[in-house]
Design goal:
Blueprint: E1 3-5, H1 6-18, H2 29-42, H3 44-55, H4 68-77, H5 80-99, E2 105-110, E3 113-121, E4 124-128, H6 137-150, E5 154-158, H7 169-178, E6 182-184, H8 188-197, E7 207-209, H9 214-222, E8 228-229, E9 237-242, H10 248-259, E10 266-271, H11 274-287, H12 294-304, E11 305-309, H13 313-323, E12 327-331, H14 335-339, E13 347-350, H15 356-361, E14 387-395, H16 397-413, H17 417-424
Parallel strand pairs: 1-11, 4-5, 4-7, 5-6, 7-8, 9-10, 9-12, 10-11, 12-13
Antiparallel strand pairs: 2-3, 3-14
Length: about 425
């Protein structure tokens, strides 16, 4: 990593960072569309065929769903400490999600006219749990728990099988503890298509959420006229804002923590202190010699990493709101004061004792967050994503007469005489 002045950052790096969420799916859409279409048409047969092609696993129809025996066996493979950690994380996520649940309400607009909203959960949700470089049971918790808190009755989890044809036991246990009703050993675009259209074994759902690779994302985009989908998700991102009071060692550890996920991850430090910048560079370089995933970190920081030296916190905040990072850590003398000026970030971590990695696991906040600059218009996944509202109106005779003249006039302005007659006839 190299230290850049703000002008150097703008000239050499910023444009690349701002365009990180732009991806051209045109080269893969035809391939993924073919998979989606075949699953929609042939159901389980297509799922089995694509699982053999992409995962080298021979499935049969009765093996698509993870059975109870396999669930019990998965629990026996985790240590007591692992089980307790999952349960503790679930409890914290539940508390955080319950605190933000929407509430039904009604109010009197005028005498005799009552309007309001009733909150209802979605009936069914599909969760995608990726395999990839490593299983992420924490991501399963972050998706399943809010759905369960919302009151969703049927929660499906699809995860690609290992080479042995199994679903990772950590994924199975996390899903079951969090409240999933069914688990399927299916991954890739075929899993998304199966949840969107339904097969004999996998029932269709109302919404699909959960991170995945570019092929999974493309499939979600293709089925979004059939089901609702969640926020766009890409490689992990962290931006750290630090002044001279920060600890360079902690900054370096947090940069490497978030960039060890993916060689396309983003890791940026913006600081007002040259001393902090230089010390961070030295510690990161030292860490790269010993980290197990050092090649991934090194690639990520070379491609989308930067240490930016700015003259003021105001300039740093301008960059933050422009970049809209997934994870934002504020390590300054007054982190709360800085936070008040932040408009665009997926999640914010305040002070030296609040590493973003803690939020990734068990603090209660979600780690399914907008990446690629989408924090400008999206929020992290929450209980709200699994709820919908139904508006209602109740008028008395008196209330109708109070609004009748206004409504009829507006209907006639639009040339909709049927609307006017519907109102005036009462």
């Amino acid at each position: 990593m190299k230290m850049l002045a703000d002008r150097q950052f703008e000239e050499k790096v910023l444009r690349k960072i701002l365009s990180r969420g732009v991806f051209d799916f045109s080269s893969i859409f035809p391939h993924v569309e073919s998979i989606v279409r075949n699953v929609a048409t042939y159901g389980d047969e297509a799922v089995i065929r694509y699982t053999k092609r992409f995962d080298a696993v021979n499935l049969t129809r009765d093996r698509i769903r993870v059975g109870e025996c396999e669930v019990e066996e998965s629990f026996s493979k985790l240590t007591r400490s692992e089980l307790e950690s999952l349960k503790r994380a679930i409890k914290n996520i539940q508390r955080f999600q319950r605190a933000q649940s929407k509430l039904s309400f009604s109010l009197n607009i005028t005498g005799g006219v009552r309007v309001g909203k009733a909150i209802r959960p979605l009936s069914s949700v599909g969760i995608y749990a990726p395999g990839g470089r490593a299983p992420y049971p924490s991501s399963v918790l972050m998706c399943v728990v809010p759905a369960r808190v919302a009151g969703v009755e049927r929660i499906l989890v699809c995860s690609p099988p290992t080479k042995e044809g199994d679903v990772d036991p950590k994924i199975i246990v996390a899903a079951k503890l969090a409240g999933a009703t069914d688990i399927f050993r299916v991954g890739g675009p075929q899993a998304i298509a199966a949840m969107a259209y339904g097969t004999r074994t996998i029932q269709r759902v109302d919404k699909i959420v959960g991170p995945g690779n570019v092929f999974v994302t493309a499939a979600k985009i293709l089925v979004r006229t059939r089901v609702a989908i969640d926020l766009p998700a890409g490689p992990s991102e962290i931006l750290i804002l630090a002044d001279g009071t920060a600890d360079a060692k902690l900054i370096a550890y947090d940069l490497t923590a978030q960039t060890e996920h993916d060689p396309r991850a983003v890791g940026i430090l913006i600081t007002t202190s040259k001393r902090i910048a230089e010390a961070t560079i030295a510690i990161v370089n030292k860490e790269l010699k010993s980290l197990p995933r050092r090649n991934i970190v090194k690639t990520a920081l070379a491609r989308r990493g930067a240490i930016v030296l700015v003259k003021s916190l105001d300039k740093a905040i301008d960059y933050i709101n422009l970049i809209a990072p997934e994870h934002l850590e504020i390590m300054t003398r007054d982190p709360w004061g800085v936070f008040g000026q932040v408009r665009n970030a997926g999640a914010v971590f305040l002070g030296k004792y609040s590493p973003s990695a803690l939020g990734d696991y068990c603090a209660g906040t979600s780690h399914v967050l907008p990446t690629g600059g989408y924090a400008r218009m999206y929020s992290g996944l929450s209980v709200d994503d699994f709820l919908k509202t139904i508006e209602f109106l109740r008028c008395t005779r008196q209330g109708l007469f109070k609004l009748k003249e206004t409504a009829v006039a507006l209907a006639m302005m639009e040339g909709l005489e049927g609307h006017a007659k519907s109102i005036a006839s009462r």
